[in-house]
Amino acid sequence: MRRTPQRAVRMLRPCFFIFVFQTKLPGVGFLKIHAPWDVLCREAEFMKLKMPTTKIYKVSQGSSIVEKVNMFLQKVTAPLQPKVGENQTENEKHLSYPFSREKMYLILVLSLQILYEQWASYSIFYKYQPIGLVRKYFGEKVGLYFAWLGVYTQMLIPAAIVGVIVFLYGCATVDNNIPSMEVCDERNNITMCPMCDRACSYWKLVTACGTARASHLFDNAATVFFAIFMALWATMFMEHWKRRQMRLNYVWDMTSFEDGEVSHTHPFSVTKLFDYKSLLLFCLFVCPMQIFVTLAIVFGVVLYRVSIMTALHMSSTPTFRTNIRATVKTTAAIINLIIIIIMDEVYGAIARWLTIMEVPKTDKSFEERLIFKTFILKFANAFTPIVYLAFFRGRIIGRPGKYLYVMGSYRMEECAHAGCLMELCIQLCITMLGKQLIQNNLFEIGVPKLKKMLRQRKIDKNHQEELNRTLHRHEKDHFLGPFVGLNPEYMEMIIQFGMVTLFVASFPLAPLFALLNNVIEIRLDAKKFVTELRRPIAVRAKDIGIWYTLLRGISKVAVIVNAFVISFTSDFIPRLVYQHMYSPDGTLHGFVNHTLSYFNVSHFQPGTEPMVPMHLGYKVDVCRYKDYRDPPWSDTPYEFSREFWAILAARLAFVIVFQNVVMLMSDFVDWLIPDIPKDISIQIHKERNLVVELFMKQERGKKYRNTVRDPSPQPLRSRPSSQA
Fold first, then answer.
1. Tens of pLDDT, residues 576-596
2. Cα–Cα distance between 482 and 249 in angstroms, integer?
3. What CA–CA distance (Å, rounded) separates 519 from 121?
4. What percent of the chain has pLDDT over 90?
5. Contacting residues for 320 by C-beta, under 8 A, at least 6 apart
6. 3-state DSSP percent of the chain in helix, strand and coil, to 5
7. Closest Cα partner for 208 from 638, 626, 505, 598?
8. Cα-based distances in Å from 94 to 52, 88, 207, 279, 367
9. Widest Cα–Cα separation across the chain
10. Is residue 507 over pLDDT 60?
11. Based on the number of CB atoms within 10 Å of its own CB, is 667 exposed (0-12), middle (13-18) or buried (19 or more)?
């Protein structure tokens, strides 16, 4: 029968020794629970901990191309390896079992010193982490987090390189881009309709030259390739992590580990009522409340953009009237960032309150429910403004003479002539950099320092110096911050993974920014664990739990989101349709004129025409606006044209084809790469053979001893006959 941790504690309680330590800290006491060596050995057998055997199977390296490449990469990256790796340190080799109190204390001190020098230093950011020593000091759960973070950061290197190449391709081809050249050509003399009612006047399309050139940096032919590449990259990252996790499980002896958490609550207890009650509360109250709050925030930012744009257009100061769009975009993105950071804390508290109300039966159940609720709330909070910009802004505005209004007089905002992709890029850039700089790094550095300073202010300086000289290590660690778990660390990385994969088609530099952040994040978290936090209780774990499922789901959703971004947010499909269906010479010459519809200014609704109609110095009879509609002199004025329906069909077809092709390629890569490395699989198989040989040898020894004791043959027992 399998022993649970609670039963093991009850069984071994008579074998424990409890020592009470006197301390100079007022109101604080320390207890040390010591178990003899034989008790630890017996528990190791119960936990199936492996120890070295006399017979060792050595797996020879194969001669395949993949294994040769791996050996070459190991030699190349040898200088990047830490001085202390997966094996024992040189100091530990001289410390033999069983450990005395002095030896154990010496190991902890040496391990902490090595971790500080070889892991928690910013000067060795280019080296691999000593994951083996991290696991020995902090436990498997913390070790797996830093191993996963290291794999994620390592995999960001090729994604960042390809993203930079795509961005440089846009920079190199911007001067040869025909649509942006047509926008910047003053000879076209295209007069555009006002961007707002009354305060805004007619404007020249050439004034949008800078926006059109900047949009080409992120909206070009390489965008589609990069979206496909990132979908395959996400799959390869997941497969690479599974292989790395399996290797760590084998090295750390976790292949046969099973979670020992069991429920001691009756299945028909009152906690079931709390489960249903909390689920109903989350679905019927929290989710609608979050949707309402999120939409209200988005709507408030929309009103801010509309009102500020109108105010800047009405301003008589020339400084305010220049770069109106850039000013409104940037300030609105900063406001969104501040709201996201504030609401993250609110949603985190709501998720924890709901999880506590459920009264989960185990720590694992509590953690998984808390993670799921926190992820749903924070993910929606971070990505709702981005989703609005990508898929809703500029699509429900109406047309000149028949615009849609909210709250009576506020006209729905429209995108720039080059589309909303540039604004989406700005929002992604500010949100990603802001969250990494403010929420992740400054909060992780500033808040612990502030708490530590407040704790030290409660103690007199002279008394504190005396305590520093006389206190033991465990007493000094009491002044460090408490360990609150790995969920905040995982959460910020999962949100970042969403930023990197979900809308990467509009922001190819996202992997580069994520890479730079994570290089600092690894050492920042390492220093925090070594110097700022109390040493957490070591917890065994063989995987990263529900976080892998969330990563898998994000990578699947990213394919669909990027398909819609390329199809509906960018001008990739309209350019493709025009070039192959409407262009007279098969090029993009005339594309800008093709995307603009005509509007007769006499059809403005009363009270919406410009206050200064002669702003350009001449009378305007017809203005242009970006849409595919019939001209006012046609039989169906201002109705959607045939080009609109042709482009819509092409967009939907692209989404279907892109999604299925990329999903098929991702599944093929998933099938192609085995989850277990070949050398680990062979080693596990040979170890099983070794165990079988050992059991067979023991059985033969038992039979031989029984034969020596009783050499007489045993008579065969006859089978009793059954009576009819």
1. 999 988 888 888 888 988 999
2. 28
3. 12
4. 13
5. 312
6. 65, 5, 30
7. 626
8. 17, 10, 75, 55, 40
9. 124
10. yes
11. exposed
Give the 3-state secondary structure of 627-681.
Answer: CCECCCCCCCCCCECHHHHHHHHHHHHHHHHHHHHHHHHHHHHHHHCCCCCHHHH
The Cα 274–Cα 262 span in angstroms is 19
3-state secondary structure (DSSP) of residue 406: strand
| Residue 20 per-residue DSSP state | E
Residue 492 parent element (H or E): helix 487-501
Give the other-Cβ count within 10 Å of 525's Cβ. 23
Tell me if residue 405 falls in helix, strand or coil. strand
Please say whether the dihedral angle defined by the alpha carbons of residues 100, 105, 111 and 113, taken in this order, is positive or negative: negative
What three-state secondary structure class fits 555? helix
- Express each pLDDT in 61-80 by its tens digit: 555 565 566 666 566 555 55
In order, the DSSP letters of 246-276 are HHHHHHTT-TT--------S-TTSTHHHHHH
Q: Which residues pair with 623 in a beta bridge?
A: 599
Query: 721 to each of 714, 718, 724, how far by Cα in Å?
Result: 21, 9, 9
Evaluate the omega torsion of the peptide bond into residue 98 and state whether it is cis, within 30 degrees of 0: yes
Strand-pairing partners, residue 598, are 624
pLDDT above 70 coverage of the chain, percent: 75
| 713 DSSP assignment | P
In this prediction, residue 2 carries a pLDDT of 35
**Residue-wise burial string across 691-702, b where 16 or more C-beta atoms lie within 10 A, e elsewhere:** eeeeeeeeeeee
Tell me the C-alpha distance between 524 and 147, whole Å: 15
**Closest CA relative to residue 565, chosen from 724, 391, 681, 448:** 391
The SS3 call for residue 576 is helix
Which DSSP symbol is given to 175? G
Instruction: Report the distance separating Cα 159 and Cα 235, nearest Å.
Output: 13
Backbone angles phi, psi at 4, to 5 degrees: -90, 160
Phi, psi of 502 (to 5 degrees): -70, -45
